[in-house]
Amino acid sequence: MNSSIYQIKITLKDSKPLIWRRFLVFSDISLYKLHKAIQIIMGWEDYHLHHFEVGRNFYGIPDPDFDDGTINGKGILLKDIVPKIPSQFLYEYDFGDSWDHIILVEKVMNSELKMKHPICIDGKRACPPEDVGGIWGYQHFLKVLGNPKHKEYRDLKEWIGGKFNPEHFNKELVNEILKKIKY
Q1: What residues contact residue 79 under an 8 Å CB cut-off, 6+ apart?
Q2: For 145, what's the count of Cα atoms within 13 Å in the CB-facing half-sphere?
């Protein structure tokens, strides 16, 4: 593969403290495969709709029953929407909860690195659980989990399966799962 490698930082907008990841992808990855990589890198489960917002354009999977102007991301390459480096755009996952992510293409590197799939190189904090109610629901979730006397504590502990550490991020596990995404 003769394309460049982009170093990208993705940050979950409005998370405090910040939830973020840094990863490497080939510049000619399709937006569809980038979405698949982001799902793994962030820890989402790909249950919901998504789109990339670049300027006035939205890229994702168009709904044949609802013409909102979404451009099919399967045929669009990352390098085609990144006019310069650094470059920034948005990724939204789960239109109900509105998990907004800031994607910053930080730098371009030559392709001497022999990558067969995207690689996560750094990150901080756990991804919020699916369907927790967006960033504000997540903040409430953390508040409840921090107070065993809270009236919702037992229900949330049961819902999350007992354990949740908001500070935990396992880069090695993410990279193992990323091997499923082939170029």
Answers
A1: 3, 4, 6, 27, 28
A2: 20
Alpha-helical runs (H) found in 57-151: 78-81, 134-145
Answer for the pair 102, 8: CB distance below 8 angstroms, yes or no.
no
161 Rama sector, left if φ>0, alpha if ψ -120 to 50, beta otherwise = left
Structure tokens at 182: 């082939």
Ordered by where they begin, the domains of the chain are 5-126+168-178 (3.10.290.30)
Looking only at the bridges linking them, the beta strands covering 5-12 and 20-26 are: antiparallel
Q: What is the pLDDT of residues 79-128, one digit of tens each?
A: 999 988 999 999 999 999 999 999 999 999 877 777 889 999 999 999 99
